[in-house]
Amino acid sequence: MHTPDLAEENFKKLAALFPNAVTETIGEDGEVVRAIDADVLRQEISAQVVEGVQERYQFTWTKKKKSVILANQPIAKTLRLDREKSVGRDGTLGSIDTENIYIEGDNLDVLKLLQETYLGKVKMIYIDPPYNTGSDFIYEDDFSQETGEYLGNSGQFDEEGNRLVQNTESNGRFHTDWLNMLYPRLRLAKGLLSDDGIIFISIDDNEIDNLSKAANEIFGEDNFICKFIWKSKLGKVGTTSTISVVHEYIVCYSKNSSLVQFKMIENSSDGRKENLRQWGVADRREDRPSMFYPITIDGVTVYPIKEDGTEGRWRVGEEMAKQLLSEGVLELGEKNGKYNIYRIFPGGISYIPYSTLILDDVGTTAKGATMLKSLDLNKVFDFSKPIELVAHFAFLCTNDDDIIVDFFSGSATTAHATMQINAEEKGNRRFIMVQLPELTDSKSEAYKSGYKTICDIGEERIRRAGKKIKEESPMTTSDLDIGFRVFKVDSSNMNDVYYRPKEYKQGQLGILADNIKADRTPEDLLIQVMLDLGVLLSSKIDETTIAGKKVFSVANGYLIACFDKDVTDETVKAIAQKHPYYAVFRDAGMASDSVMANFEQIFETYSPKTQRKVL
Length: 615
What we know:
Blueprint: H1 6-17, E1 22-26, E2 32-36, H2 38-44, H3 64-72, E3 77-87, E4 101-104, H4 107-113, H5 115-118, E5 122-127, E6 137-139, H6 147-153, E7 156-157, E8 163-166, H7 174-192, E9 193-203, H8 208-219, E10 224-231, E11 247-254, E12 265-269, E13 272-275, E14 295-297, E15 300-302, H9 318-327, E16 330-335, E17 338-345, E18 348-352, E19 357-358, H10 365-374, H11 387-397, E20 403-406, H12 413-425, E21 430-435, H13 445-448, H14 454-472, E22 484-491, H15 522-533, E23 541-546, E24 549-554, E25 559-562, H16 569-576, E26 582-585, H17 593-606, E27 611-614
Parallel strand pairs: 4-21, 4-22, 5-9, 5-20, 10-19, 20-21, 25-26, 26-27
Antiparallel strand pairs: 1-2, 3-22, 6-8, 7-8, 9-11, 10-11, 12-18, 13-17, 14-15, 16-17, 23-24, 24-25
Helix pairs in contact: 3-7, 4-7, 7-8, 11-12, 12-14, 16-17
């Protein structure tokens, strides 16, 4: 019941590739452990290996290695559903018939918990992390710090030890601490993106350079799309400079740039064609290595070779080129013995790309504040992006049923934007919002209005925004999902003995009779099982009774679970006869040793393909 150990998975991949590099050494606890021999690994790699103090191009900072370890190491935590805070798809409080998710907790924990279930399933991530202006609070990930120490730092904490600390400019590790906060989160976020997925990261001049270098390292320079420049303020601001900074950036990267497709602007025309080879900016092979490949038309194979004979690149990825070929819109051209490939745009409509400049159409931060005011949430949140900004990105790269994630949710602008674009396009995009339950200042308007945490503000904003959208367009939004299931990060449902049995002596074995914590409900166990087995948190959950026992059916019987006690053969047989893909029971729930002994045989008889799991 841990999250995946990414370091162990990487070890297995290396061991499979280079079994001769597997060795044994003494671990930190003094025991012999398997390891990778770096010297042997170097010998197996044909490329030149840089060692020692030899000069090389690299981007590093203090404790960077620790941030990598932090991203890879597993955690023994889970999510627990909060039905009271949840809202159904039609706005009904306490209902969970919605596909949207809101999670309260440290986003590093949440990203790890989502790795199994949402790996490669997210089409778009938008985040608005702390800009590191000298007054921002950032996540403190030094878990060796004692409670008494960090209380003095910020006053922001919860029972799980989540905390924020203010990163002032006087801090000697000003940029380092910010990078150590963001770097492991971006590494984990990459895993959630689908192959054609996109991440958008808002930032300003304070950390744009460091963010770009870190993102290049994580996503790869080939997958850099662009830096959008957003006019975030209406006019001159500040009095300490002769230059008024009125813009921010949104850095955009892809999981695989060759698969990315952005929507384009329709443009009426009489028909045209354009060279498929990139020209102008970033037109060399080394600028986009993945976009240098052969295209064969009419028996002629063409590479993107520039006029001067050097290697260039195509304007589209290989998968897109195959699609254009199948659509018959690529044409072979020849001039002076040299071949080119052209893309044909039929007469009537052509398409031009959107600009990286985002100006007056989207609006500024003032527009974001106006939106909060329209929801009667004036002055409860200091800064909020306009929903039009996030909706613009969602329009560019997402389709009807895609998942959109924001793990620095704040006032939940991304959730609001998702519902708005769904209303306009009659879509069914789903959102996952993640926010640390950061305490509001006791002197703030938010606190005085009853919002004790940032999560309280975000959740209320979604409720009000959904209601407002439906009221403004009642005829077209009757089936719009304006709900969200609320989850909270908590410690594992399993007792510590489940993880460290070797620490217990013979006289203590009596406490192993039940390995599940006494305060955990069957629903708690179901959510943890869904996370472990990769079942979407938004899946439909039905409750039925079989032979007097509560049984959960998830995703129309894909997963069936029973965590009641005194489960008999009758219940096990009835579940097996429904032929679920997964069937899960509680170890201490079987009525007798006889039921436990018959368990496997019952499934072998009635549903041998069902994957069985016992907690």
